[in-house]
Amino acid sequence: MANRLSPREAMYYFLDPAGATSHLGALLIFDDAGPPAGAAPDGAQHVLDYPSLVSLVENRLQLAPRYRQIVLPVTMGLARPVWVDDHDFDINFHIRRSGLPRPGTLAELGDLIARVMSRPLDRSRPLWEMYLIEGLEGNGYAVLTKSHRCLVDDFAGPEISQVITDETADVVQYEPDLWMPGHPPGA
């Protein structure tokens, strides 16, 4: 079933064509200082690689179902647009990999973030992106999330960066999500 954007969500959505970008970002920076307290006794380094990040997000996207939805305009603009499931959802479009020349400094990371955040989101897809940024000094890496404000402002669920983090060193695995897109309005 399609849900109509709230008045506030619609306001943020319609700001973009006027030249403003209405997305928000979150940055998580990780260093390679070794395993956290309480981690596996083998002392193994726990570095997040691209396949692991994709797998983690796929497993947890069920906690933020709006991240699989697109905004669908209403015929002739007679009402606010609606949220509908994206039948062409492709997790690999949304999760991207980028690198800094080693050893990447915080200033270089800032430049990359500025470039990423200055580009508008693709309005034909769910309105979010995630970047695994490798090459930070000290073998560090970062995860940058970019979500449109209409996706997170009135939404009672978590933002995508909250979905991929845990409060403890134990990684929570959820039951596999057998998501199937719903029928679009009028189908």
Give a short summary of the structure.
With 187 residues, the chain is of the alpha+beta class. It has six helices and seven strands.
Write a structural description.
The chain is about 25% helix and about 25% strand. It has one domain: Chloramphenicol Acetyltransferase (2-Layer Sandwich). The strands form two sheets. The protein has a four-stranded mixed beta sheet with strand order 2-7-6-5. A three-stranded antiparallel beta sheet has the order 1-4-3, with no helix packed on it. With about 190 residues, the protein is α+β, with helices and mostly antiparallel strands.
Overall residue-averaged pLDDT value: 83
Instruction: Kindly report how far apart the N and C termini lie.
Output: 11 Å
- Rg, nearest Å: 18 Å
Return the CATH class: Alpha Beta
What structural category do the secondary elements indicate?
Answer: alpha+beta
Portion in helices: 10-25%
Oligomer, anyone?
A: single chain
The strand count comes to: 7
What spatial order of strands do you see in the largest sheet? 2-7-6-5
Poorly predicted residue ranges? none
C-alpha geometry: globular
Number of helices: 6
